[in-house]
Design brief:
Elements lengths: L48 H14 L6 H4 L13 H5 L5 H14 L4 H23 L20 H8 L6 H13 L4 H14 L4 H11 L5 H12 L12 H8 L4 H7 L7
Helix pairs in contact: 4-5, 5-10, 7-8, 7-12, 8-10, 9-10
Length: about 270
């Protein structure tokens, strides 16, 4: 154990303290072009621990939106349909433990319900994919996934460009692809649908889709991204090997077409 001796410098002595004068360079300083956030973004992200704690303060305590998380988590429009903590978790600005204990505090002081349970469940799901990666290593990047499935996959460059540019036959998919291209973010519901469409309907190499997400996502996490892409592509942990009906999903989660109109513009015959 370290003990300060009688004549040793005390913590309050000015010579004992370090003063941090570091200045964060601007994009221009780094030779990059500045940018403006898209006004339609559901996730106007700012980096750093302070911003992560501000988000918790807002979502948990100022608005108490946490108590509705399970009901709203499949939303598509607006900043508060989900916690939006994933980017700070991914870049290490905040820990899962910090969020966990804040949830427990919320349960004690405000409300404990399925929503508070579900946010903790999502933190566990995130850790689950880390353990999958530790167990299976680079299999998470292989075509057959962790199941070693020998499926027929295609690599159509024209389809890839249509998918990336939001020019497929499915407006719901197109809206989501427009959103990620403009903002670096996509909802959980959107990610599952565009993944299923790419891998299950178009039967294109799922790794191309995962790599595209890796190139854009503000909340990119290697384990969650590749784990979820395997899961939704039929080569991962989903025992039911589900395929999403995109039109049904659009009707259920965007019944008034607000999300699709936000990213595609105008009134359309979407269903």
């Amino acid at each position: 154990m370290f003990v300060l001796r009688k004549n040793s410098p005390q913590p309050q002595d000015k010579d004992f303290l370090e003063v941090n004068t570091t200045k964060i360079p601007s994009l221009e300083n780094l030779g990059l072009e500045d940018f403006q956030q898209d006004s339609r973004s559901a996730f106007p992200f700012k980096g750093g621990e302070d911003e992560a704690l501000k988000r918790i303060q807002h979502y948990f305590w100022d608005t108490c939106q946490l108590q509705y998380y399970k009901k709203t988590r499949n939303g598509l429009v607006g900043a508060d349909y989900s916690s939006k903590l994933s980017a700070w978790l991914a870049n290490g600005s905040i820990s899962a433990k910090t969020i966990y204990w804040e949830v427990k505090k919320f349960e004690k002081q405000i409300k404990k319900n399925q929503s508070t349970y579900w946010l903790i469940f999502e933190l566990i799901w995130r850790d689950y994919f880390k353990y999958i990666s530790l167990k299976h290593g680079n299999k998470i990047f292989q075509l057959g996934g962790i199941l070693n499935k020998n499926l027929d996959w295609n690599n159509d460059k024209k389809m890839l460009q249509e998918w990336i540019n939001g020019k497929t036959k499915e407006p719901f998919v197109n809206a989501n692809m427009k959103e990620i291209a403009a903002t670096g973010f996509m909802s959980n519901r959107g990610r599952q649908n565009v993944n299923s469409f790419w891998a299950k309907e178009l039967q294109q190499d799922w790794r191309i889709g995962a790599a595209y997400f890796e190139s854009l996502l503000l909340d990119y996490d290697v384990h969650s991204n590749w784990g979820n892409w395997m899961y939704n592509s039929g080569v991962g942990n989903d025992p039911r090997d589900r395929k999403f009906n995109i039109k049904t999903q659009a009707k259920r989660y965007d019944p008034d077409q607000k999300y699709q109109q936000t990213w595609l513009g105008g009134q359309r015959e979407l269903f």
